[in-house]
Specification:
By secondary structure, the chain is α/β, with parallel strands linked by helices. It folds into two domains: 245 residues, Aspartate Aminotransferase, domain 2, CATH 3.40.640; 132 residues, Aspartate Aminotransferase, domain 1. Helix content is 33%, strand content 15%. Strands 1-7-6-5-4-2-3 form a seven-stranded mixed beta sheet, sandwiched between helices. A four-stranded antiparallel beta sheet has the order 8-9-11-10, with helices on one face. Strand 4, helix 6 and strand 5 form a beta-alpha-beta unit. Helix 3 runs parallel beside helix 8 and helix 4 crosses helix 5. The protein is globular. The two termini are 30 Å apart. The protein binds pyridoxal-5'-phosphate. Pyridoxal-5'-phosphate binds next to helix 4.
């Protein structure tokens, strides 16, 4: 297998991930001798937790495990592992990435409050604002992620949302500048960190208050679990944990187990997504069918300098613009793909390719792609096989 690891100094063995994360991912959240020596924390199916005496029942508020909704040894192990990876004070687990997002929004919502949301935020963030926050009396401004927010903060601004890079169009915000502007006015910040898997970007060390991920994607990594994580910065965990409790958010033990199992290999998987993704992004840049590639790891990308400053690698998700084709022609290309699947989500071991239309979800910026926008997830297959599949697909456009 030829990975062309020389293409980028961060690829392969030269990437800038912290080696400490490799060790941490193998060990975080485990305590074998608390579980008869089993390497992995077992799946605790539990709603009722019994207390042996009335005195123990009376003291249940101080018990680690007291009721299934409040967590089990399996979910606590996962919380510990995510907290270790993200450098968090504590982590709140949710049944989906969208619920993690919505909980952070709701925890900061009150009539008269104001939120700043990047124009390229994951679509459901915008829908939650339009359909839940605004009817509750929250004012929402969508901002251009490349322009920053300093002018847009109001006395009543209660939350600044960030996503890096943005969904579908992959622009890179200046995280440090946005966080500094928010901190200067005492406004909390939350960043959707799904793209980096929590491995290539450490938002909490940059002063972000909440690092949110769809655990559905890279943390789980096998296209079979729905989950979300809210990693909380210093002084932020207790209130978010209590809020999530009031909302009844919890994760099932089988999903917590699968996610923890996925996290053990996060680092080796992402290293491959990084190298193969860059390899294919570079190949696409050289194709006559492709107008431009949106991948912050490419030197030609407008977000490359910010990405190089803040990230230690790139995941396998990016976009490209193809010259416009009629839908039946696009169908000829897509329907014949052998290795690329068509479907929502990403972050699994397998490759995906879908057409998207970012113009439908932009209001603060105009986005004129000048062609058909495609979103690609480069999985763990041999990238040369993936290139052959794409090349044959482009051939079917003729
Ligand atoms: C998929 C996704 C989510 C939502 O995750 P679900 O688990 O599908 O609810 C949030 N943010 C980003 C950037 C995503 O791609």
């Amino acid at each position: 297998m030829n990975l062309n690891l020389t293409a980028d100094p961060r690829a392969g063995d030269n990437d800038r991930r912290s080696r400490a994360d490799d060790t941490l991912l193998a060990h975080a959240g485990r305590d074998p001798f608390a579980h008869d020596g089993a390497v992995n924390v077992p799946v605790y199916h539990a709603s009722t937790i019994l207390f042996p005496t009335l005195a123990a029942l009376d003291a249940k508020a101080t018990a680690r495990v007291r009721y299934g909704r409040r967590g089990t040894p399996t979910s606590f192990a996962l919380e510990e592992a995510v907290s270790a990876l993200e450098g968090a004070e504590g982590t709140v687990l949710t049944p989906s990435g969208v619920m993690a997002i919505t909980l952070v929004l709701l925890a900061h919502a009150r009539p008269g409050a104001h939120f700043l949301i990047p124009d390229n935020a994951y679509g459901p963030v915008r829908h939650a604002c339009n359909e839940i926050m605004i009817p509750m009396g929250v004012a929402v401004s969508f901002y251009d992620p490349r322009a920053g927010i300093a002018e847009l903060i109001r006395p009543e601004t209660a939350l600044v949302w960030l996503e890096a890079p943005g969904s579908q169009t992959f622009e890179m915000p200046d995280i440090a500048a946005i966080v500094a502007a928010a901190q200067a006015r005492g406004v909390p910040t939350a960043l959707d960190n799904t793209w980096s898997g929590g491995l290539f970007l450490k938002p909490l060390t940059m002063g972000v208050d909440f690092s949110v991920q769809a655990g559905t994607k890279y943390l789980s990594g096998h296209s079979d679990v729905m989950s979300g994580t809210i990693a909380c910065g210093a002084g932020r965990h207790e209130r978010m944990r209590a809020f999530a409790q009031r909302m009844g958010a919890c994760i099932g033990p089988d999903d917590a187990y699968l996610m923890l199992r996925g996290m053990r290999t996060l680092s080796v998987r992402l290293r491959q997504h990084h190298a193969s993704g860059l390899r294919i992004a570079q190949w696409l840049e050289g194709r006559p069918e492709v107008i431009r590639v949106m991948h912050p790891g490419l030197p030609s990308d407008p977000g490359h300098a910010l990405w190089s400053r803040d990230f230690s690698g790139a995941s396998g998700l990016f976009g490209f613009v193809m010259r416009s084709v009629e839908r039946p022609t696009l169908a000829r290309m897509m329907d014949g793909m052998k290795l690329f699947g068509m479907g929502a989500s990403w972050g699994g071991f397998e490759s995906l390719l879908i057409p998207v239309d970012p113009t439908a979800v932009r209001t603060a910026t105009t986005w004129a792609p000048g062609g058909q926008v495609m979103r690609i997830h480069v999985g763990l297959e041999d990238p040369e096989d993936l290139i052959a599949d794409l090349e044959a697909g482009f051939g079917r456009l003729a």
